[in-house]
Amino acid sequence: MIAGALASGKLPPRLLDRLVRWRGAPDRRVRVGPGCGIDAAVVAVGRHRVVLKSDPVTFTTDRIGWHVVQVNANDVAVMGGRPAWFQPTILVPPGTRASVVMRIAREIDHACRALGIAVTGGHTEVTDAVTRPVVAGDMQGLLVTAGVITAAGARPGDRLLLSKAAGIEGTAILAHDRLRELAGAVSATLLRAARGIRRSPGISVVEDAVIAARHGASAMHDPTEGGVRAGLHEIAFASRVRIAVDLDRIPVLRSTAEICRHYGIDPLGLIGSGALLATVPARRASGLLRAWASRGIAGREIGSVEPGRGVRATRLGRRAPFPWIARDEIIAALARAARPRDDDRYHFVARTPAR
């Protein structure tokens, strides 16, 4: 029995696994329903398969309309779908200026236009249930791959790949929401790079996922809240396998590493939209990396899939602790004053990309 008060962040996997068993009325058209680590649902409608996703943005208000489109589109894409239709729910506290609501709507419009997505409806409300703007999204799209791809498809012998780098979205959020504080602690060059990573490498993985699906990805997962750390545990849990990961091979941008060092947080546990975790048969791993590179998408093999359960991590060739964490590291960064820390989690910084 799981008891006690819940802290900010994700539900523990075992609690979430119990919660998603309450699924309402049975429906044979539901091909993929709720599950721990499952990014979206898939429903059969006639000859089509529709991918459905809902997700809020709660960590930031800066460009929140743009963010909510990206994170929902990502989750449809990693299931093998093409995002097509979007409905936002916008909640703002009393006293919010009308211009703020209009700005959020414009951001949603611009983000959807860039991805070829139609806004089909939604809801906007002023309520004292929130103290700052919160936007939740509902994204739908058609399945475009031969079969559904989920986080539950990893198989022993597969290789584990990561596109781009860890902690991209969290870096962008902190660089914008804590700009004044970071300006005195991080070099101007790195802070400028951190503020620009929404554009490059960006937090969309739609193209990353489309390419991975074409190259035989057995599982894909968008490591959002809890970052790469949570994402790896969720794949292992959903697929009932063990993930072997070399922590030295996980790319972390220098701007991410420096901001995380300032706050004393782990970049691998930082909200990570922009990266894609994918498992592929060993014979296809190099082909996927080349295909990503041909589109300007950095990628790296960071581990493999084994029989067993959980995550087996190594650093410098030795076993390293890598437990699942309930709270995204950004929660700690936003809630407390900076606490610089120099421990062995950051030894890899010098070998990370320069951005």
* CATH topology value of the largest domain: Phosphoribosyl-aminoimidazole Synthetase, Chain A, domain 2
Overall CATH class of the largest domain = Alpha Beta
Our count of helices gives 12
The fraction of residues in strands falls at 15-25%
Structural class: alpha+beta
Low-confidence stretches: 341-354
Topology order in helix (H) and strand (E) letters: HEEEHEHEEEEHHHHHEHEHEHEEEH
What is the number of beta strands? 14
Report the helical percentage.
25-40%
Arithmetic mean of pLDDT: 91
| CATH H level, superfamily name of the largest domain | PurM-like C-terminal domain
CA-based gyration radius: 20 Å
Shape: globular
Counted up, domains total 2
The major sheet is characterized as: 7 strands, mixed
Distance between the termini: 46 Å
CATH architecture term of the largest domain? Alpha-Beta Complex
Provide structural commentary.
The structure is a single chain. This protein is α+β, with helices and mostly antiparallel strands and 355 residues long. Helices cover 33% and strands 23% of the residues. The chain contains 12 helices and 14 strands. Strands 1, 2, 3, 4, 5, 6 and 7 form a 7-stranded mixed sheet that branches. Strands 9-11-8-12-10-13-14 form a 7-stranded mixed sheet, sandwiched between helices. Helix 2 packs parallel to helix 8 (206-214).
Task: Give a topology summary.
Elements (H helix, E strand, L loop, with lengths): L12 H7 L10 E3 L8 E5 L2 E10 L6 H14 L3 E12 L5 H18 L2 E2 L3 E4 L7 E10 L15 E5 L4 H10 L1 H5 L4 H9 L1 H5 L3 H9 L4 E3 L5 H13 L2 E5 L7 H10 L13 E4 L4 H10 L4 E8 L3 E6 L2 E3 L8 H7 L20
Parallel strand pairs: 4-5, 4-6, 10-13
Antiparallel strand pairs: 1-2, 2-3, 3-7, 4-7, 8-11, 8-12, 9-11, 10-12, 13-14
